[in-house]
Write a structure and sequence with these properties.
Blueprint: E1 4-9, H1 16-22, E2 25-27, E3 30-33, E4 36-39, H2 46-56, E5 61-63, H3 67-78, E6 83-88, H4 96-104, E7 111-115, H5 120-135, H6 140-150, E8 154-160, H7 164-168, H8 174-182, E9 188-192, E10 195-200, H9 206-222, E11 226-235, H10 241-253, E12 260-263, H11 266-272, E13 276-283
Parallel strand pairs: 1-2, 1-6, 6-7, 11-12
Antiparallel strand pairs: 3-4, 3-5, 8-9, 8-13, 9-10, 11-13
């Protein structure tokens, strides 16, 4: 097995048991609440995030990983004679990947970077594939070649119960937020290659938005084009646990039992709010 280390950032939202199993190094982004700065998932949980935001009456903000932090991690492994493969949040969503490339300038070789083009567990799926490739004895170069195609097969959708956090984060206008609230719209956000888009705007109970998530999966299931071993549900806060159970029931009705349930970190939660559900899965082709 080639001796390379797999590194990702905290937005990949991989469960601890998976990170431990494969020895994945996680570099946290930072969360700013007022004048205080916290490391995502290390010094701040999503429960604490929303409690502090309410207490301080201010919206948390996120900041990318600095080049110096990347250089420190890269150097740690290079000095041990290991290669490093960093797989990060899509470059269209954060300056994190750009900063990784800045750090890369100080290393002549043995550090490799892959843009996942995705968010949260969508990035996590790309990281998992890299781990499997390494376990199969593939080189880092062979792994990257596969990942460049694999990342395009990731499908990630989010149902968001309120436009409040998207509005506060500058991702939707005040008018859109107002009409969204009046019409009880729970938008479906689709994550594509390095960008997000509003795919649908279901009205009424939040369960209608959850049904729309399942409808996207149904379309791909018709063609038997879904990798049934890699399906995940993502949620940021216990307020969404009932919605997780609703989705799990819907997946079970479709014969899908093997579901990875994971929590979104503070970086993702900051922009979507506590009652959000994400559905991610892999296409076969």
């Amino acid at each position: 097995m080639e001796n390379f280390v797999i590194v990702t950032d905290s937005t990949s939202d991989l469960p601890k048991d998976i990170k431990d199993k494969y020895g994945i190094e996680i570099i946290p982004l930072c969360i700013n609440i007022g004048e205080d700065i916290y490391k995502d998932g290390v010094e701040l949980s999503t429960i604490e995030l929303f409690d502090l935001a309410e207490e301080k009456k201010t919206l948390p903000k996120t900041s990318a990983i600095a080049p110096a932090e990347f250089a420190e991690v890269f150097n740690k492994y290079i000095s041990q004679g290991k290669k490093v493969l960093f797989i990060g949040i899509g470059s269209g969503f954060s300056a994190t990947l750009q900063n990784a490339y800045i750090a890369l300038e100080d290393f002549e070789k043995d550090v490799f970077i892959v843009d996942s083009e995705k968010l949260t567990i969508g990035t996590g799926f790309v990281v998992l594939k890299a781990c499997e490739m390494r376990e199969a004895g593939k080189t880092v170069e062979e792994t990257i070649e596969v990942l460049n195609d694999y990342r395009k097969k990731v499908r990630t959708y989010f149902a968001i119960s309120t436009l409040e956090y998207l509005h506060k984060g500058g991702r939707c206008s005040g008018t859109a937020r107002l009409f969204g609230a009046m019409l009880k719209i729970s938008p479906i956000i689709r994550v594509a290659e390095n960008h997000m888009e509003v795919a649908k705007k279901p009205r009424g109970k939040f369960e209608k938005a959850l049904d729309e998530l399942l409808n996207y999966l149904d379309e791909d299931l018709k063609d038997k084009n879904v990798d049934l071993t890699r399906i995940a549900l993502i949620y940021p806060h216990p307020k969404a646990l009932e919605d997780v159970e609703y989705m799990k029931k819907g997946l079970l009705e479709r014969g899908i039992i093997d579901v990875l349930v994971t929590t979104a970190g503070c970086t993702i939660a900051t922009h979507c709010g506590p009652r959000t559900i994400g559905l991610a899965y892999m296409l076969n082709k």
